[in-house]
């Protein structure tokens, strides 16, 4: 069996760019992904960046794919990884298509959507917002003709517009009813606060305005004056004072039962309404998809700004486990451009270890690290505030762990 | 009425794709090369892919990218696969899972 220099799990923006960077340095690289197409979350992405410039994720994915193949990278789709094991040479990955051996392993598994369980959410026709995005933009199938989106955030607003482009009538974007598990997404004041944290560079006028207001208005004040019937963006009403209490239907969705709520999420009595829809999207946000990192013995830390539990790693994408690296949204939820830049850092770091030329590579790696910081500074959308600060904490933690940690014993096989 | 988005204002026209036939619970349905089981069925207006093992209630796709396992179906009467990451092929036979005794293992 072939021994790869680098096996990458995940053919999204981070994985592909890492493959390209490493292959350019002469490494034998393989990328595997369980989806049917190459590109990861890039595939669904379609938004206007400026007046005549669209971010077309499919085009970006195709370009990276071609570049990687041209450099001799082996890419396989439809392959799932279910176990990882350290070996003398590096790592063994057990997949649905057999075992792979590699010197270095890069986890670029991306992010997963956070589910919002509300009554009726298992009825056929209820799906995550990302599911609808992939159905429309990747498979070119409308999930239905009319839709209600539960969860008001940057991602759901962007995808609402994408669904509209597919010919879907998006009736409204509302919030889930507040409960013990959903204190933030289900509270108008908190939703307003998250809108107001968006930078002045946010992609829409409303969000830009919200960002400006934030400097002199408190969210609790702003939410008071937020109209009950919502503010329209892309002609879609965003109603952060309307909450879904139940999704209706038997073997197929028929609509959503809603109530009006106060800024703190409290239900206003006698405001119950039913909005008909033939599919419903749940938008709970994204969290790093890190099971494989947990399996391989990485140390974790919960960092709210990064979307959840992330494996401790350095700015050069090393983890505390030997020969194991991470890049992209597994390290924290950010946009695809940042994931791509992180992929380059990982690819170069790994190449410098394999080729034993760390000194010669140093300035190249430093440049790549600076490019990640630059992308972060220029991001149109910040999923959470204070990401850069949160990241610095993780890198500090890595240094501490690296000094204190007893290296895990390798299995000899 | 078709649910296919053949003309998209930004992504453009869907180029000609080869039509194939797949079978879901014994009935034939049209599908196109490049479809997953989930996209082919949704294009035909089929939302329910299986019944819950205990309650018997119907379930369909949730995440559409292989994470949640809600869309598992029986392939060729012998294998359980996730409809959302399984590509279709001509003559493919898919069946709903209905209970613990029908997992086809």
UniProtKB/TrEMBL annotation, chain B:
EC identifiers of the protein: 1.5.3.1
SUPFAM superfamilies: 2Fe-2S ferredoxin-like (SSF54292)
Enzyme class: oxidoreductase
InterPro entries (alphabetical): 2Fe-2S-bd_N, 2Fe-2S_ferredoxin-like_sf
Alphabetically ordered keywords of this record: Oxidoreductase
GO MF term list: iron-sulfur cluster binding; sarcosine oxidase activity
Protein name: Sarcosine oxidase subunit alpha
């Amino acid at each position: 069996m072939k021994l790869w220099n680098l096996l990458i799990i995940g053919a999204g923006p981070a994985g592909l760019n890492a493959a390209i960077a490493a292959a350019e340095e002469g490494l034998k690289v393989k990328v595997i992904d369980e989806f049917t197409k190459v590109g990861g979350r890039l595939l669904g992405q379609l938004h206007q960046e400026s007046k005549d410039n669209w971010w077309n994720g499919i085009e970006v994915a195709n370009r990276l794919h071609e570049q990687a193949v041209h450099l001799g990278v082996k890419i396989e789709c439809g392959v799932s990884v279910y176990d990882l094991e350290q070996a003398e040479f590096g790592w063994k990955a057990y997949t649905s298509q057999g075992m792979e051996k590699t010197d270095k392993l890069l986890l670029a598994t991306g992010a997963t959507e956070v589910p919002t369980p509300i009554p009726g959410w298992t009825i056929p026709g209820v799906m995550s917002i990302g599911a609808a995005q992939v159905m429309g933009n990747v498979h070119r199938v409308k999930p239905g003709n009319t839709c209600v989106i539960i969860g008001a955030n940057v991602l759901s607003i962007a995808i609402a517009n994408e669904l509209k482009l597919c010919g879907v009538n998006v009736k409204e974007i509302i919030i889930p009813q507040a409960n013990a598990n959903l204190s933030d997404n289900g509270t108008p004041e908190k939703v307003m606060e998250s809108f107001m944290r968006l930078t002045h560079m946010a992609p829409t006028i409303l969000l830009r305005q919200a960002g400006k207001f934030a400097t002199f208005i408190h969210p609790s004040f702003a939410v008071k004056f937020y109209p009950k019937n919502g503010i329209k963006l892309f002609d879609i009403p965003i109603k952060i004072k309307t909450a879904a209490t139940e999704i209706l239907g038997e073997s197929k969705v028929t609509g959503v039962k809603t109530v009006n709520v106060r800024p703190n999420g409290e239900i206003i009595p006698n405001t119950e309404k039913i909005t008909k829809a033939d599919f419903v999207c749940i938008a709970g946000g994204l969290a790093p998809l890190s099971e494989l990192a947990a399996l391989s013995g990485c140390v974790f830390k919960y960092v709210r700004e990064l979307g959840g539990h992330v494996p401790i790693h350095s700015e050069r994408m090393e983890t505390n486990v030997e020969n194991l690296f991470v890049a992209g949204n597994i390290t924290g939820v950010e946009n695809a451009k940042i994931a791509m830049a992180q992929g380059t850092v990982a690819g170069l770091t790994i190449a410098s270890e394999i080729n034993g030329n760390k000194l010669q590579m140093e300035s190249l790696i430093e440049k790549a690290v600076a490019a990640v910081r630059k992308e972060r500074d220029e991001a149109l959308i910040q999923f959470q505030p204070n990401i850069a600060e949160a990241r610095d904490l993780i890198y500090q933690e890595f240094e501490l762990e690296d000094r204190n940690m007893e290296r895990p014993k390798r299995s000899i096989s | 009425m078709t649910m296919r988005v053949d003309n998209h204002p930004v992504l453009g026209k869907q180029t000609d794709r080869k039509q194939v036939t797949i079978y879901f619970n014994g009935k034939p349905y049209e599908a196109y090369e490049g479809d997953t089981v989930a996209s082919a069925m949704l294009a035909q207006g089929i939302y329910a892919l299986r019944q819950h093992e205990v309650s018997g209630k119907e379930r369909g796709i949730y995440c559409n990218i292989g994470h949640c396992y809600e869309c598992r179906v029986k392939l060729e009467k012998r294998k359980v696969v996730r409809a959302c990451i399984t590509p279709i092929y001509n003559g493919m036979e898919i069946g709903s899972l209905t209970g613990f005794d029908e997992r086809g293992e």
